[in-house]
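Much of what follows relies on a compact textual record of a protein's fold. Each token is a code from a learned vocabulary of local backbone shapes. The record below shows the convention in full.
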Amino acid sequence: MSSSGDAEETRVALWRVFDTLPTGVCVTTDTGTILYANPALHGLLRYASGGLTGLDLAALEPEDAFFPALPDAPGERRLRCQDGGTVWVAESVGPTTGPLGERQSLRVYTDISHHRQAQAALRDQLLMKEVLFETLPVPVFVKNAAGEYTDCNDAFERYTGLDRRSIVAKTAFAVMDPRIAKAHADQDHELTVNWGQRSYEEAVPFVGGTTRLSSLTKAVFCDSAGNLGGIVGVIHDLTEGLPSEERLQAILEQSPIGVSVSRRDDGKIIFVNTRFAELIGLKREDLIGRQARDYYLDRHQRERVIDRLRSYGSVTNMEVQFRRADGSSFWTLFTVNQAVIQGVQVNLAWIYDYTDRRNMEEALRDMASRDPLTGIYNRRSFMELARSQLARAHRFSEPMSVFVLDVDHFKRINDSYGHATGDDALRMVAGGCQAILREYDILGRLGGEEFVVVLPGATAEESRVVAERVRRHLSRMAIPGPEGRFHLTSSIGISALDGSYDTLEKAIHRADLALYRAKREGRNRVVVYEPGM
């Protein structure tokens, strides 16, 4: 054996050391071709054993341009899995040398997907808390364990006229009369000794040294170590008196959001406002005494609401479907808080009709996945769905076939009848294919007059039968033109899935080769790929 052969054997033997590592490892050429990848990397990217060897690193780049709104740390990146999914990894790259002195790279990949997801969740929680804090209509302030103000919201500044910069890092004794400050400090001390929550009435300082009698509700909170973190307080103005029952009723009646109150012990509705009654489609008096659970469309959604209430005591802006009295449904943003009213434990619920917004979002998602001319899947969506079917076929060792269809002499149609008629012809071709294909077959437009179909569970011979039916059906369609009707023909190339390491791109390429053979042999025919084409 030559010295280069000995070096190659030594190099492969050294690479096998990485086979037992739990972290993904690969060796690449200086141009990015993968020479070796250990089992952990194959498992991380969901490739069969040996499936990464020979691939270019560029093939592992995600196809879409969407990235989570988190700053990328050095060495962190996304890799595309064989089934179309992606994983976040921390990448370390070091130089190494091949058996003949050529430059190579040793790359180590550590899965950090859970870490990135946790970062995103934490960021969203912090953002939500910050938004809620600043948009609350009631004045709120925060003190640390030493009694110093650390923050307040916009409503506090509007209510007191005090700028938050004038109170932050100061105690009550620095911002109000010592007598009033002592009264607040005494309440804080008792709260920190006994923990929990307290409500009391006392004067609150205003800009210019004035005060106003207010009701304060304070509660302690813990830091990450479980120790006293500080106190959060909410101010309620008492100078104008408490609102009467009539004023509360008027406020609820003018609310554009549906409001209901139901008893927690038996679930019976004891109050609804007019908007809630309108959304359900019944009179208010007809809703009183009914079970709140009767208006959930989906039992599983109701169970999610109940579980959230049991675990957290509230539900905020959960998407839930409700049932109207006529049996129709509508989507809502559903918020529930638990409370005690006149000694009765109740659930306070707000429902905001979300149907139009949700329908618009679904329509936008559908538009993003569809070809605007024909209404079938565009190239990007087709490839995503087809890769999912490919992964399933590999997982369960099932057959799958792909066929590519091209309209014969389509340029002549555009030149003879105009592009508007050509567009009509493409729409009719898409509709004609859908009329023959099964419901779970995937039809997409690759571009121009070229269409592609994935047939899950179908062998090449079974796909030939389907493709022949499609070809005949299209050739019989009468296409309306400016000077009368005309007919068109199509050519189709077929390729079956080739083993557990086959890819969608390779299958489509083989089907393209069969399509070219069909065109060379005279068009208007179906050809199945054979080796050597």
